[in-house]
Design a protein that fits this description.
The structure is a single chain. 47% of the residues lie in helices and 12% in strands. The protein is an alpha/beta fold. Among the domains are: 2-128 and 247-295 and 465-514, Rossmann fold (3-Layer(aba) Sandwich), CATH 3.40.50.300; 130-236, no CATH class; 520-652 and 698-765, P-loop containing nucleotide triphosphate hydrolases (Rossmann fold). α22 (613-622) links the parallel β21 and β22 (627-630). α1 packs across α4 (94-116). The protein is globular and about 75 Å long.
Length: 770
C-alpha cells in the first residue's frame, strides 16, 4: 500500500506529479539531480524511532535549473500533510520568495494532495520594515498638507486626506519637519500607502509598489520593530500589514523568508523567527541560495564607531527633546566635542597602523582607550533627556514623537553596544580601522561632507552563531523541567557551494553533496572560450616589466586587452550578450566602449543606466539582440533564456581585495592547519579563491537556463590555462577550471569561437535550431 512506502519513495512520487503539473505534460519527468536531491532531503528529515522529527543536515550543490524549489517544497509539503510538521524556507532574494509562494507552492501543493489527499499552505514573511505602516503614512500625508496629527480620527478620514494630497503639485519640493521631500517621489508613495489601509486584500509589501521609492522615501512610510509603537498603542493596529503577515505565517505549513531575518537571529541570538512564540515551532529549515547565508550573517553582525555616530545620535535626540532646554543644548555641545576627540584618537592610531585605507589592530589594542567610557556616559545621558518628552507624547497621542523616541532609544543602545564591541578583541571577530572614503565633489553643495575615521568589527567565524542560535533549538518540558531538544533538520542548497561551506555554516556534515547538472545536451552543444594569449603581442599587452626585467600580469592593462576580445565576440554573435566585469570601474568602461562600437547595430544597456536596474533588465530581456553590461550584481538572479543571452562574457574571475574580515578568516584556518606557508596557501584558497570561484559559478549559470539554451561562455582570463607564462597557482587554477569545465566544446582560439558563433547566427537567421 502507498502508506507503507518509504518516505523517499513517496517524495519521489510527489515530485514526479509536481513536474507533470508544472510543465503541463504527462511525459515530463524530474531531472536526475532534482530527484536525487529530493530523496536525500527526505532522508535527513525522517524521524528515527519514536524520537522527534529528523535532525539531519545536508549541504547540496545543485546547479542552475535543477529545480531546487520543487525539491524543498515537495518534502516540506509531504511532511506537513502526513505529520503536521512545519518548514521554514529561506532565500536570499525577495523576488524568489514571491515565485516560491505564488507560482511553485500551488503546483506542489496539488501534487501533495493527489498523493495524500491533503495539500499544504504557504506564506511569505519579510522583515517588519518591508511593509507599509499606516501610522507613518498618515502622519507624512498630514505633514505634506501642513497639518499636525494628534491621534487618528478614524478610517473615514483617509479618503479626504488622500484627496487633499492629490491636489499637491506632482513635482517640486516641500519642507516638512525633519527635512525636505521630493513630491515626484513621495506623493505617489504616500497615496499608495494610504490606499493599502483601505483594502483588506492588499499586503502593503514594498515589492508590490509599482513606483520608484528610495530607501529614505520608504523609511518615511514604514517602521522598524524598534520604532513601532506596538499594537496596543497604535491607532492603525487593525490595519497593520506587518502583523497580518506574521499572522498568516503563524498559520502556514511552509513559511518563506529571507536570509536577512535568519542573520539577525544568528548574530544577536534573539528569537526573531525560530523559537518565536507568535510564529510557532518549525521542524525543518531549507536554505536556498545558501552560499550567501554566512556572508549575510557577517554583514548583519558588523558594527562601526566614529565621530559621525555621535552626530547621528544628536539628530535622533533633537527630534524628540527640545534643544532650547539648556540641558539638551549642553549635551549637544558635549557630543560635538566628544565626536572630535574620537576622530582625533582614531586618526592618530590609523596614522601609526595604516595600510592604504585600512589600519590593523592587534589583539591587545583598545582603539577607544581615551574616549570609549566618555562616549558611553554621554549616550546614557541622552536616555534621561528623552524620557519625559516621550511620556508626554504617549499621553497626548503624538505617535510621531513616540516613534522618534524609539528611534533615539535604538540609536543610544546600539552606540553603547558597538563601542563595547570594538574595544576588545574576541575570538571569531575581526577589528580594524577604516579611513574615510575619498571625498567627491557634489554639485550644489557648498561645503564638503566632513570625513570621519572609524573603528569597525565584524564576526568572522559565523558557524558557531548559526549552529547555536538557529540550528539548535530547545524547550523546557512543562511537567519535568527538563530541556528537550527540538532542533530542526537543516538543508542548505545552492548552485555553487565553496569546499568549506559546511564548516562555515555550522552544519554537522563535512562534505557538500554535488548533484548532476541539468540540461546536459545544452551544455554538450555549447562552448567554453578561454583565450590562450601566448603570442608576443598578447603578452606585451597584458603585462608590465617587473623586478629583474621579468614581465608580470597587469589587471589595469587587461581591461584594454579584454575589450578588443569583446568587440570580436559580440560582433560574431550579433549582440545577444551579457558582459560581466569583475570591477565596476572597468564595467562602466566596457559599457561606454561597446555602445560606441555597436554604432546602432544593437542596443547596449548597463546596470549604471538611469532608472531602476530592474527596468533596465526588463528592457534587455525584451530586446533579444541587446547587450547588457554589469558587474557582480548581475552574476546572480539574471534569467534570460534563449538567444537573448547566448553569449556570456566574464572579463576575469571577480576577487575581493584583501580586507580585515577575510584576512581574519584566513588566520583562523591557518591556525587550525598548524601554521606554515602551506597552511597559508590553503587558507587563502579556501577564502579568497573560493569566493571568486563561487561568483564565477554563478556567472556561468547565466548561459544555460533551459534545455533549449545554447551559446558561448567566455572567460577572458589566460591565467586559468595551464603552462602559461603567468598562470595561476596550480591548485587554485584547477579549482577555477573545475567550475567552468562543464561544456562539451572548448577552445582557446578566437577564430574558433567566432566561427562557432557565426555559424549559430546563420542558422538562427534561417530559422533553424542554433
Amino acid at each position: 500500500m502507498t502508506s507503507s512506502m518509504p518516505i523517499e519513495d513517496r517524495a519521489e512520487k510527489v515530485l514526479e506529479r509536481a513536474v507533470i503539473l508544472g510543465v503541463g505534460s504527462p511525459d515530463a519527468r524530474p531531472r536526475p539531480g532534482q530527484l536525487a536531491a529530493t530523496r536525500d532531503v527526505a532522508t535527513i528529515q525522517t524521524k528515527i524511532g519514536d524520537g522527534p522529527s529528523g535532525r539531519g543536515h545536508l549541504a547540496g550543490q545543485a546547479g542552475v535549473g535543477i529545480g531546487k524549489s520543487y525539491v524543498g517544497l515537495t518534502n516540506a509539503g509531504l511532511r506537513a500533510s502526513l505529520y503536521g510538521e512545519r518548514t521554514l524556507f529561506s532565500t536570499k532574494s525577495l523576488p524568489l520568495q514571491a515565485q516560491i509562494v505564488d507560482k511553485d507552492a500551488p503546483v506542489v501543493s496539488q501534487a501533495v494532495a493527489d498523493e495524500t489527499g491533503k495539500g499544504f499552505t504557504a506564506a511569505v514573511l519579510k522583515g517588519w520594515g518591508n511593509y507599509v505602516c499606516g501610522n507613518r503614512a498618515y502622519e507624512l500625508a498630514s505633514a505634506l498638507i501642513g497639518e499636525d496629527v494628534f491621534g487618528f480620527p478614524g478610517q473615514s478620514t483617509i479618503k479626504p486626506l488622500m484627496a487633499r494630497v492629490r491636489k499637491l503639485p506632482d513635482d517640486g519640493t516641500i519642507k516638512i519637519e525633519g527635512g525636505t521631500v521630493d513630491l515626484a517621489e513621495v506623493k505617489p508613495l504616500v497615496l499608495w500607502s494610504l490606499q493599502q489601509m483601505l483594502n483588506d486584500g492588499t499586503s502593503g509589501d514594498k515589492d508590490t509598489y509599482d513606483g520608484e521609492a528610495s530607501d529614505d522615501a520608504w523609511k518615511a512610510v514604514s517602521v522598524s520593530p524598534e520604532e513601532c509603537v506596538g499594537l496596543d498603542e497604535c491607532p492603525f493596529a487593525e490595519f497593520c500589514k506587518s502583523d497580518r503577515a506574521r499572522t498568516r505565517a503563524a498559520e502556514a505549513d511552509v513559511v518563506v523568508t529571507n536570509h536577512s531575518i535568519l542573520a539577525v537571529q544568528a548574530s544577536i541570538g534573539v528569537p526573531v523567527i525560530l523559537g518565536n512564540a507568535t510564529l510557532g515551532r518549525f521542524d525543518h529549515i531549507i536554505v536556498d541560495e545558501a552560499h550567501e547565508l554566512p556572508k549575510t550573517v557577517r554583514s548583519q553582525g558588523e558594527c562601526s564607531v566614529s565621530g559621525r555616530r555621535m552626530s547621528g545620535l544628536i539628530r535622533l535626540v533633537r527630534a524628540v527633546a527640545n534643544d532650547s532646554d539648556s540641558r539638551v543644548s549642553t549635551w549637544i555641545e558635549q557630543g560635538h566635542q566628544i565626536a572630535e576627540l574620537v576622530e582625533n584618537e582614531l586618526h592618530g592610531i590609523f596614522t601609526e597602523r595604516s595600510s592604504g585605507e585600512v589600519g590593523r589592530l592587534t589583539d591587545t589594542d583598545d582603539p577607544l582607550a581615551r574616549t570609549g567610557e566618555g562616549v558611553i556616559a554621554w549616550a546614557r545621558v541622552a536616555s534621561r533627556l528623552i524620557k519625559k518628552p516621550v511620556l508626554d507624547a504617549q499621553k497626548s497621542g503624538r505617535n510621531n514623537l513616540v516613534m522618534a523616541g524609539r528611534r533615539a532609544t535604538g540609536g543610544i543602545d546600539s552606540l553603547i553596544a558597538d563601542v563595547t564591541a570594538v574595544r576588545k578583541h574576541k575570538n571569531g571577530q575581526a577589528r580594524w580601522l577604516q579611513a574615510p572614503p575619498k571625498a567627491t565633489p557634489v554639485i550644489g553643495r557648498r561645503r564638503p561632507i566632513k570625513p570621519w575615521y572609524a573603528v569597525q568589527a565584524a564576526p568572522v567565524e559565523v558557524g558557531g552563531l548559526l549552529r547555536g542560535n538557529l540550528w539548535t533549538q530547545t524547550v523546557e518540558d512543562e511537567e519535568t523541567g527538563d530541556v528537550v531538544d527540538i532542533s530542526p533538520s537543516v538543508t542548505c542548497m545552492s548552485g555553487t557551494l565553496p569546499p568549506g561551506f559546511a564548516m562555515d555554516a555550522g552544519l554537522n556534515v563535512r562534505q557538500n553533496v554535488e548533484y548532476e547538472l541539468p540540461f546536459q545536451a545544452a551544455y554538450a552543444q555549447s562552448m567554453l572560450y578561454i583565450p590562450s594569449a601566448k603570442g608576443t603581442d598578447d603578452v606585451l599587452d597584458l603585462t608590465v616589466e617587473g623586478f629583474g626585467g621579468r614581465r608580470r600580469f597587469s589587471t589595469d592593462k587587461h581591461a584594454d586587452w579584454a575589450l578588443k576580445q569583446m568587440y570580436e565576440l559580440v560582433d560574431a554573435n550579433g549582440g545577444h550578450a551579457l558582459v560581466l566585469a569583475a570591477k565596476g570601474d572597468t564595467g562602466k568602461k566596457y559599457a561606454q566602449a561597446l555602445r560606441a562600437h555597436a554604432a546602432g547595430r544593437w542596443n547596449v544597456y548597463s546596470q549604471w543606466d538611469a532608472g531602476a536596474p530592474r527596468l533596465t533588465l526588463a528592457k534587455w530581456k525584451a530586446d533579444t539582440t541587446g547587450v547588457l553590461v554589469g558587474t557582480q550584481g548581475l552574476m546572480t538572479g539574471v534569467d534570460a533564456p534563449g538567444e537573448t543571452c547566448s553569449l556570456v562574457i566574464l572579463d576575469r574571475p571577480p576577487r575581493a581585495a584583501a580586507n580585515a574580515v577575510d584576512d581574519a578568516r584566513v588566520e583562523l584556518i591557518v591556525e587550525r592547519l598548524g601554521g606554515g606557508k602551506a597552511a597559508e596557501w590553503t587558507a587563502r584558497r579556501l577564502v579568497y579563491v573560493a569566493d571568486s570561484i563561487e561568483l564565477m559559478g554563478q556567472a556561468r549559470g547565466r548561459l544555460i537556463r533551459g534545455e533549449n539554451d545554447r551559446g558561448v561562455f567566455a572567460v577572458l582570463e589566460p591565467r586559468m590555462l595551464k603552462n602559461h607564462v603567468f598562470t595561476y597557482e596550480e591548485t587554485a587554477r584547477r579549482d577555477m577550471m573545475k567550475t567552468v569545465d562543464v561544456y562539451g566544446q572548448k577552445t582557446s582560439e578566437l577564430s574558433a569561437v567566432t566561427a562557432f558563433m557565426r555559424d549559430r547566427q546563420k542558422r538562427r537567421d534561417l530559422g533553424l535550431a542554433a
